[in-house]
Design a protein that fits this description.
The complex is a heterodimer of chains A (551) and B (139).
Chain A lengths: L3 H15 L21 H4 L6 H5 L15 H4 L3 E6 L4 H13 L4 E5 L2 H4 L23 H7 L9 E5 L4 H14 L8 E4 L4 H7 L6 H18 L3 E2 L1 E4 L1 H5 L4 H21 L4 H4 L3 E7 L3 H22 L5 H4 L2 E6 L11 H15 L4 E3 L12 H17 L13 H24 L2 H6 L2 H18 L28 H15 L2 H17 L4 H9 L4 H12 L9
Parallel strand pairs in A: 1-2, 1-9, 2-3, 3-4, 4-5, 6-7, 7-8, 8-9
Chain B lengths: L5 E5 L8 H12 L3 E4 L6 H11 L3 E6 L4 H14 L6 E6 L5 H8 L3 E3 L5 H21 L1
Parallel strand pairs in B: 1-2, 1-3, 3-4, 4-5
Classes of the chains: A alpha/beta (551), B alpha/beta (139).
């Protein structure tokens, strides 16, 4: 078996050359100085499966973390999801978050934007700016990032069906400001499969939807090489009622489905796979969540290497963002949620996440206020700086329970992945209603367990004496709709109509002929075509999707 | 002769978070009611027209997007317009406490927040719907 000091000499040192250890005391409160890593050698036991199943951080199969020095060198990115009302209001919130020590931006869009409608569309009524920021054209995007250096921050955008259009708007802002696209970093969620499975923000049928995603796989690495053009998401699957095992299995199955679609288009796996990123939920069952992250990395590495023939180690690494479980938050006794979020965030960190959003305690009631969002960020900072869990990498490795549970979750998830493969893949399984049925079962079963008190939720079905508490609520200004409508009217008045028409025609032709749509989305964004106009062109070409109403 | 309670569960607007709606629909069905689930992205017009066609006793709206004031108001207005004010309107989702009295003032019979047990919703309908029937019988 390879010795720890060989790993220290090779992988760990190499990692430090890129990113030195953080200049904080890597010592316990008693002054003990933990080493960066502990293995069976350190306690004098044999673990014949160590290399195959666990390995070393920064090395295949990445069970113990994707980077050699993990949090010793670089903490996870504290990335708080924010967005509400107008672009001006969200821009202000972004600047405050950056000042509060946040290290990356994360944009939440409102429902009309997520569904590809302009703010002044009849179906947008009542929804504009409600659960995110409204972005209908480049003009909104320019305001949203006013005064923020796009080369100095990384921006994550939670956008799916209209991802190509929204990404193009962001890139257009950068272009107009003279930034180099090669220096831009960030992520678009762009995971349409989990929309059909769970979140339901789809516009077009599955096949053309996946085609649009693969357009970004093809165009992204060549034009914006540091950008993660997909964040394959389990978060929404879990929030919609799945179990942790289902979340793990379905998310990875989605990832493999994209890989296969990209290979079918003739792309080189080692060119696109390094830019695939992931996003998992982190719920209350502490050890199950930690095991989930470790199993996810191992499954992805094995399959990418052996099934899809990837040779670049970066293609084997599952890099992931995590978010504490919104669905676990209670409207009853909302301050209890601060404790839930802290425990979940700790699980994500012990699971080796690369980026984390912590929910605010009032999110079962409304959008977070500035104060509640700050407490959530402070929760991460307390874990990072005060608990000592960052002294040594993957500190729970070698726990009998955690290792057994990691193996068990891998086994169960692989069985589900194989079952989906036998059905002919994720798209076929969607068309057969497989995920709808499974989710309906899992969430109903959970609800019954709660109602029978087999599962206790503090403050909900036990310990319910409530101290009356007034939670301040973030309210969205109803003026948003007006401000947005006025800006849209101005955009339509002031842009060059000929250029708009040509750009939209180019997009339509690309869609009809099956060409890559991304260059045309950029043309449309620069011409100030609205989001609704771009999406309407594609609705016409691809049609829209209606899911069966299954209970 | 036991008359069965008929309920329409609907997801108005753009919000696709349907876990709660589906769990409630299934619990009401398990409690012996007849449940019609509309599916996603329904306009108020579609919801009211389905309610009239299906001759339901109650409509339950599930809204998590923050657009609840708009949708409850519209559905209630259309019900009144169609002479169907007797159909009980109830709902749930992410709805701040201070909006609940406003919704009740609009004529929404009950609002069930997160963490409500499905049994509470069953009990509410078993109480309120027969009351409505008795009132109709007397009219």
């Amino acid at each position: 078996m390879r010795k720890k000091h060989d790993w220290m000499r090779e992988t760990y040192q190499k990692s430090l050359e890129k990113m030195p250890e953080r200049p904080v005391a890597h010592r316990t409160l008693s002054g003990i100085a933990p080493e960066p890593l502990y293995t069976p050698e350190d306690i004098g036991v044999l673990d014949p499966e160590y290399e195959e199943k666990r390995g070393y951080p920064g090395e295949y199969p990445y069970t113990r973390g994707v980077y050699g020095s993990m949090y010793r060198s670089k903490l996870w990115t504290m990335r708080m999801f924010a967005g509400f009302g107008t672009a001006e209001q969200t821009n202000e919130r972004f600047k405050k978050l950056l000042k509060a020590g946040q290290t990356g931006l994360s944009v939440a869009f409102d429902l009309p934007t997520l569904m590809g409608y302009d703010s002044d569309h009849p179906l947008s009524k009542g929804e504009v700016g409600k659960c995110g920021v409204a972005v209908s054209s480049l003009a909104d995007m320019e305001v949203l990032f006013e005064g923020i250096d796009l080369e100095a921050v990384t921006t994550s955008m939670t956008i799916n069906s209209p991802a190509n259009a929204i990404w193009a708007m962001y890139l257009a802002v950068a272009k107009k400001r003279g930034h180099d696209w090669k220096k831009l970093g960030g992520t678009i969620q762009n995971d349409i499969l989990k929309e059909f499975i769970a979140q339901k923000e789809f516009i077009f049928p599955p096949e053309p939807s996946v085609k649009l995603v693969i357009d970004t796989f093809e165009w992204g690495p060549k034009n914006v090489p540091k950008w993660n053009f997909i964040s394959v998401s389990g978060y929404h699957i879990r929030e919609a009622g799945s179990t942790a095992v289902q979340e793990l299995a379905w998310t990875l199955a989605d990832g493999f489905e994209y890989v296969e679609a990209a290979l079918k288009r003739g792309l080189d796996v080692d060119e696109f796979a390094p830019r695939i990123s992931f996003f998992f939920d982190v719920h209350n069952d502490f050890f199950e969540e930690i095991a989930k992250f470790r199993a996810a990395r191992r499954i992805w590495a094995k399959e990418m290497r052996h099934r899809y023939g990837a040779k670049n180690p970066q293609s084997w690494m599952l890099r992931t963002h995590a978010q504490t479980a919104g669905v676990s938050l209670t409207a009853q006794q909302p301050l209890n949620n601060i404790a839930r979020v802290a425990i979940q965030a700790l699980a994500a960190v012990l699971g080796g996440t690369n980026s984390l959003h912590t929910d605010a305690y009032d999110e079962a009631l409304a959008l977070p206020t500035e104060e509640s969002a700050t407490i959530a960020l402070r929760t991460q900072q307390i874990i990072a700086y005060e608990t000592g869990v960052t002294h040594t990498i993957d500190p729970l490795a070698g726990s009998y329970y955690v290792e057994w549970l990691t193996d068990e979750m891998e086994r169960q998830a692989m069985a589900i992945i194989e079952e989906i493969r036998r059905m002919g893949g994720v798209v076929r399984a969607i068309e057969e209603g497989y995920f709808l049925r499974e989710l309906a079962e899992a969430s109903y079963r959970y609800q019954q367990e709660v109602e029978r008190k087999e599962r206790i939720i503090v403050g909900v079905n036990a310990f319910t004496d409530e101290i009356p508490l007034k939670v301040p609520i973030q309210l969205v200004d109803p003026e948003v709709e007006k401000v947005q409508a006025e800006r849209l009217a101005r955009v339509r008045r002031e842009r060059d109509p000929k250029r708009v028409e040509e750009a939209l025609e180019g997009l339509r032709r690309a869609a009809v002929e099956g060409q890559n749509t991304m260059p045309h989305f950029v043309d449309c964004a620069l011409a100030y075509c609205t989001l609704g106009e771009m999406m309407d062109v594609l609705r016409e070409v691809y049609g829209v999707y209606q899911e069966p109403a299954y209970v | 002769m036991d008359r069965r309670i008929r309920v329409l569960i609907a997801k108005p607007g753009l919000d696709g978070h349907d876990r709660g709606a589906k769990v409630v629909a299934r619990a009401l069905r398990d409690a012996g009611m007849e449940v019609i689930y509309t599916g996603l992205r329904q306009t108020p017009e579609m919801i009211v027209s389905a309610a009239l066609q299906e001759d339901v006793d109650a409509i339950g709206l599930s809204i998590l997007s923050g657009a609840h004031m708009h949708y409850f108001r519209e559905v209630k207005r259309l019900l009144d317009e169609q002479g169907a004010s007797d159909i009980l309107l109830f709902g749930g989702g992410i709805i701040p406490d201070e909006d609940v009295p406003k919704l009740k003032a609009l004529g929404v019979a009950e609002v069930f927040g997160p963490g409500t047990s499905t049994q509470e919703i069953v009990d509410f309908l078993r109480r309120a719907v027969p009351e409505k029937w008795r009132a109709e019988g007397m009219a």
